[in-house]
Amino acid sequence: MNTTDSYSREVTALLKTAQIYGINGPVIYLKGNTGFRMSEMVYVGREKLVGEVISLDKDMTTVQVYEETSGLKPGETVTATGNAVSVTLAPGILNNIFDGIERPLERIADTGGAFITRGVSVDSLDINKRWQAHMTVSVGDYLHSGDIIAEVPETRAIVHKCMVPPDVEGTVVNVVPDGEYTILEPLITLELTDGTQKELPMMQQWPIRVARPTHHRFPASVPLVTGQRIIDTMFPIAKGGTAAIPGGFGTGKTMTQHQIAKWSDADIIIYIGCGERGNEMTQVLEEFSELTDPKSGNPLMDRTTLIANTSNMPVAAREASIYTGLTLAEYYRDMGYDVAIMADSTSRWAEALRELSGRLEEMPAEEGFPAYLASRLSAFYERAGMMHNLNGTDGSVSIIGAVSPQGGDFSEPVTQNTKRFVRCFWGLDKSLAYSRHFPAIHWLTSYSEYLGDLAPWYQEHVSTKFVDYRNRLMALLNQESSLLEIVKLIGSDVLPDDQKLILEIARVIRLGFLQQNAFHKDDTCVSMEKQFLMMDTILYLYKQARALVTMGHPMSVLKSENIFEKVIAIKYDVPNDRLEMFAQYKNDIDEFYQRVLEKNA
Amino acid sequence: MSIEYLGLSSINGPLIALEGVQDAFFDEIVEFVVDGTERKIGRIVEIYEDKAVIQVFEGSDNMSLVNTHTKLTGHPMEIALSPDMLGRTFNGIGQPIDDLGPLTSTLKRDVNGLPLNPIRREYPRNYIRTGISAIDGLTTLIRGQKLPIFSGNGLPHDQLAAQIVKQASLGDNSGEQFAIVFAAMGVKHDVAEFFRRTFEESGVSDHVAMFLNLANDPVVERLITPKVALTTAEYLAFELNMHILVILTDMTSFAEAMREVSSSKGEIPSRKGFPGYLYSELATIYERAGIVQGVNGSVTQLPILTMPNDDITHPIPDLTGYITEGQIVLDRGLHGQSVYPPINILPSLSRLMKDGIGAGYTREDHQDLANQLFAAYAKVGEARNLASVIGEDELSPIDKKYLEFGKDFEARYIGQGPAENRTIEETLDLGWELLGLLPREELDRVDTKILEKYYKPTVKED
Q: How far apart are CA A298 and CA B377, in angstroms?
């Protein structure tokens, strides 16, 4: 963000300044009519701390500071920059880790050591690195906003497409030859409609609180395949969709997000660690550098950007970090990529809003949260979507937000308001987590509104029976839940055999299908085809076992065969590349059927 | 810097306002002289032009609008650091109270600390053997972790913390320098005395720096105590390459103190009257655990907090759980059955455990065994619920087996002597022995190969 320092922009007007009047934590007050603009970025004090204007009246300007304010004095100078808080967009974003306002932590460590000091002025992106650019336009072309002007291999996995910034169009009058350029060197010169000329480098800037323009939005039609059975089969999310993962501490929100970030079929992952643990970010960084992307075989970090604002970093930057990540995601979407955002956790962001709102002495609504919580949340989630971009490509931004409800109680304001704006809800359950059933997404409280939208995709790409099978599994699980109510009162021994069978099959579904081991090499990510075959096997077992029970064979005999355990172990025993082994399981089930018949003949 | 301001413009609880100050900055420390004799210090918490709101650490007793001289110190809250701090006792704001004289050190640090850059953190992987089965086996403590003990009033959290200190400080890591930083916030005199005695008995007292803010000490001082302690810990760990175990007790008093000060500042309360920044404040304390790359030292935190009314959803334990890397939860029911340590393993968790155990660290079967014990013990709860409705006799044979497993598990695995120091092998083997009470087909969390190797049915001799 401080790139503004290091290269000359067209700064014509004299920068406005004002003096600090009061300081209260991250909020500072400037007296008088300063002429600052709303959401304008400012530098505060001698140390040039980064801040943003959040309210204005004729007597007082209020600024939130993105860094620790201790040491500031009344009377120190605040300088306006003339620009809204924005991010720098150019090659170099991927395989990088930034703080909440796009300052690379690597550079901060180079200048400040192991601890993050204040007022660090570093470039968002490396301005000296030369990137190999392949030009895709020629002199005389008329370019519109968003048109791709050059392609730059950013990492082994991703080709970065440099675009004409939104709101700019004109005729190309000069193009540099293919070659190596820094992000600030002009690549083309445009003659604008008003006759002036404008040079376009690789880099552009965009304010974080404004959505990047698109042509139009598509309805959801393609799932974001995550390799996680309970998500892909039971509660799928579409590319361009929104999902919330609420759960108390220790229920596995972060783990679920890590799994999706690792294995989903998105092109780009933006992982926002918003107010979470420092060690977790370190872990993501380490693990993602070692793991390889199943699609391209490159390190996962090649398609990943991390935004780290850990819980002990300043609270105002925590509020901004969500928007920083979102804007980066939209930028890659404009290139035609499918981007998935992991926001961990949106509750910390909401709490940052509450904290700042409290400092501003605004009237609190529910539980001290400001009344605009709902509108902020909706504005955030609405920036997701499958879009037709200005340049004619199609791309998507999917948002997966973790929610950390206070006391694990889903009725609190952040969870409730989030529920209104997301279409996919993966409710994590404490009792599942306690018995170490992971992912602890509870099948009875979760839902996905995308199921209907995605049904045609499943029929075409997996199997025509897929949705039907999925619904049958759900029905069995629901029956189990009502049977368990009875079992709780009278024990399972008194149930009739057909109901005992439902309990047994539901157990197979829970342990063999829903439960998934993130640390097992085959089970950690499972293809749609294997998911379907597993369902197929379980339902076939149910069909045969039900036939036996209907004929009057007691459940105790059925259970004495180890076929149920064998089906549960499919997830470990069938490697992902040997799906032909499923045929053997059908034979085993048939043999089991015959054996029981013979035994009781 | 030598300007002294005479008098104050208002006093409200621990907060005072001073007008006409010049050149003061936010978070600056000020010194007061009351009545020409009594010295106090305070911190500027809000400032508007020439009017400063100051929080007095020792409380505003005895201060009047006219009898107080105020001097700006020109620096934020600092503490003098030296290797000699080990073996010493300090008050809540880091002043020696053990009659051994002041510390001679020129090295001073801002107690607020700075956030550790995630890219310079080293991911914690070395486990600390505590000799307590429920912790080593199921919620393994990792060096550089922050693992709080969630307890209630009257539960033996102090004994547990003391046992961990004793047993972890001996044992395998004797080659490395080990020290303890102990911070007491609003604890009873007896508790502080108990810890002091324990440190002495186990022969580590010359490796302990104690920061004591007792229950009758000023409330505001408590807000600074953990920061002072952690600044010391960071210095010892990252500059003197020592492995530091920090015990913070009781975090509930710290949070209560914050609420008290917040309400006298007239701030808008969020949950249960706690200020909106409770999470951020707790985070700045807990996040100061960890390991820095290239430094052979670590800060491991063992905060203790008493859950008000044993309620784990209360804001203090709730927010703590969201920041720390797991928790050890003590249970009144188990305590009532005289199980020591009364650790309720189901809500207990160590997030860093998965990377610090298994082949190469403890033993290959550790993770599977732990998962299975958790799953089996969860079933024990279900069987007990059922038994309480239909009676134990009506249970199915398998449920009866679970009840038996549950009883043995609580008595022998969770329960152990207050001086019993088990090796990791003993803990793991005991786990398998108990799982042997269950039929093999019930063990659905264990890899088939590991089951082959370790599982054998236990025959109970009557």
A: 42
Strands A148-153 and A131-135: antiparallel
CATH classification (class only), A3-86: mainly beta
| pLDDT per residue as tens digits for the range A490-541 | 878 889 999 999 999 999 999 999 999 888 888 999 999 999 999 999 999 9
pTM of the model: 0.91
B380, two tokens: 């024990």
| Structure tokens given for A251 | 């229920």
B390 touches chain A (CB under 8 A): yes
Strand partners for A87: A206
Within the 13-32 window of chain A, which residues sit less than 8 Å (CB to CB) from chain B? Answer: 21-25, 29, 31
- C-alpha distance from B243 to closest chain A C-alpha (Å): 18
| CATH no., domain A466-599 | 1.10.1140.10
**CA B237 – CA B179 distance, rounded (Å):** 9
Task: Please name the fold of domain A216-449.
Answer: Rossmann fold (3.40.50)
Share of chain B above pLDDT 90, in %: 59
Q: Residue B172's pLDDT is what? A: 53
Q: Rounded to an integer, what is the distance from CA B167 to the centroid of its chain?
A: 17
Q: Is the pLDDT of residue A177 over 90?
A: yes
Chain A interface test: which of B322, B349, B366, B371 (most A C-beta within 10 Å) = B322
The residues, ordered by sequence, that sit 6+ positions from A583 with a Cβ below 8 Å of its Cβ are: none
CB B144 within 8 A of CB B289: yes
List domains and CATH numbers for chain B: 4-75 (2.40.30.20), 80-356 (3.40.50.12240), 366-454 (no CATH)
> Angle, nearest 10°, between helix axes B157-169 and B189-201?
20
DSSP state of A68: -
Whole-angstrom distance, CA of residue B102 vs CA of residue B179: 21
**DSSP code per residue over B179-202:** EEEEEEEEE-HHHHHHHHHHHHHT
Q: A68 — contact with chain B (CB < 8 Å)? A: yes
Cα dihedral: B395, B398, B399, B402 (round 10): 150
Across the strands, what pairs with B408? none
Fold of A131-203: OB fold (Dihydrolipoamide Acetyltransferase, E2P) (2.40.50)
Tell which A residues from 432 to 451 touch B, by Cβ distance under 8 Å.
434-437
Please tell me the predicted confidence (pLDDT) of residue A5: 42
Q: Is A281 on the interface with B (CB under 8 A)?
A: yes
Strands B89-91 and B208-214: parallel
Whole-number Cα distances in Å, B83 to A35, B90, B140, B236, B296: 53, 14, 30, 7, 16
Beta strands of B94-232 (E only): which ranges? 108-110, 149-151, 178-187, 208-214
Q: Give yes or no on whether A3-86 and A216-449 have one common fold.
A: no
**Per-domain boundaries in chain A:** 3-86, 131-203, 216-449, 466-599
Within an 8 Å CB–CB cutoff, is residue B392 touching chain A?
Answer: no
Does A600 contact B at CB distance below 8 Å? no
- Residue among A141, A243, A156, A125 nearest A187 (CA): A141
Residue B50 to residue A490, Cβ atoms within 8 A: no
Going by C-alpha positions, the residue among A85, A381, A440 that lies closest to residue A247 is: A440
Cross-chain Cβ contact B325/A312 below 8 Å: no
In whole angstroms, give the CA distance from residue B83 to residue B236: 7
Residues from chain A that touch B24, judged by Cβ atoms under 8 A, are: 73-74
Closest to A326 (Cα-Cα) out of A346, A310, A311: A346
Contacts of B441 in chain A (CB under 8 A): 562, 565
Long-range CB pairs of A153-156, under 8 A, 24+ apart, other chains included: A154/A91, A154/A92, A154/A93, A154/A94, A155/A94, A155/A95, A155/A298, A155/A302, A155/A303, A156/A296, A156/A298, A156/A299, A156/A302
B76 — contact with chain A (CB < 8 Å)?
yes
